[in-house]
Design goal:
By secondary structure, the chain is α/β, with parallel strands linked by helices. The protein has eight helices and eight strands, in the order ββααβαααβαβαβββα. It has a single domain, classed as Ethanolamine ammonia-lyase light chain (EutC) (Rossmann fold), CATH 3.40.50.11240.
């Protein structure tokens, strides 16, 4: 146009502008200080985003290896039960969250036949493990977490049911499991919704006096249990504190605060730290 020849810089000549916050990236996995190249992300950051997104999708779609998790847990001398939610498949589970909150008929009948008797006085704690939205999180973190927590609970004198492994489960499915097993408190270890920097994050929820239809304000949550987040040891310590407080106050949820002292030991002897 107008007899002028338009010139284009080759791609190699494009300048990547560094973000002034770049030094802060070493403190977090969060996607900050990405820089820019013109009006776009630098190619390296764009490829890292695509990789993180693919890992998050894989975490959601990876099948739950119940047999592998069961083997890991039973190697520590713990008993397990394999159960399933009302969702018939991974696709059904993702499309119908309500089905993930209920047990299948076969699982409900199994628990009712084993725990409905009048001689079943119920245990203190029911531990449930479910794939949720990240089977990878469960595969990597659930077995060592369960072993360490149940060992600490047993040392403190708490009784526990067999560990329930629920495929295609949401958080609320634990309420029905514990109700049928007549447990006084339920803890569920479940794969959390993957983030771009955390496809293997395990969530821990506890509910005192659980029942089907229990709502979320009656629960406590410990999130981001993974090697790059909250360590298993620290997560178990925090859970022990909340469980001890739940039995002392006979409640969980918004009225049970995480005021754990820095010096707290799992199921410590000092009730003043809890009451």
């Amino acid at each position: 146009m107008n007899g002028m020849k338009q010139e284009y810089l080759p791609a190699s000549a494009a300048t990547v502008l560094e973000d002034p916050w770049a030094d802060l990236k070493r403190y977090t996995d969060a996607r900050i200080a990405l820089g820019r190249c013109g009006v776009s992300l630098p190619q390296t950051e764009w490829l890292r985003f695509r990789l993180a997104h693919a890992r998050a999708r894989d975490a959601v779609l990876t099948p739950f290896d119940r047999a592998g998790v069961r083997s890991d847990i039973e190697s520590a001398g713990l008993r397990c039960l394999e159960l399933a939610s009302a969702a018939a498949s991974r696709e059904d589970f993702l499309a119908r969250p309500d089905k993930g909150r209920r047990l299948s008929e076969a699982s409900r009948e199994l628990l009712a036949s084993q725990y409905a008797g009048a001689d079943n006085q119920g245990a203190d704690i029911c531990l449930v493990i479910s794939d949720g939205l990240s089977a990878r999180a469960v595969h990597e973190n659930a077995a060592p977490f369960a072993q360490l927590f149940l060992a600490s609970a047993a040392d403190a004198g708490y009784s526990a049911t067999p560990v329930a492994l629920v495929e295609f489960g949401r958080v609320a499915v634990a309420d029905e499991v514990a109700s049928l097993m007549k447990a006084r408190l339920v803890v569920i270890l479940i794969g959390e919704r993957p983030g771009l920097s955390s496809p293997n994050s395990l969530g821990v929820y506890l509910t005192y006096a659980p029942f089907p239809g229990c709502t979320d304000e009656a629960r406590n949550c410990i999130s981001n249990v993974r090697p790059a987040g909250l360590s298993i040891e620290e997560g178990v310590r925090k859970l022990c504190y909340l469980v001890q407080g739940a039995f002392a106050r006979q409640l969980t949820g918004v009225n049970l605060k995480d005021d754990m002292p820095a010096t707290y030991l799992p199921f410590g002897k000092d009730p003043a730290a809890i009451a």
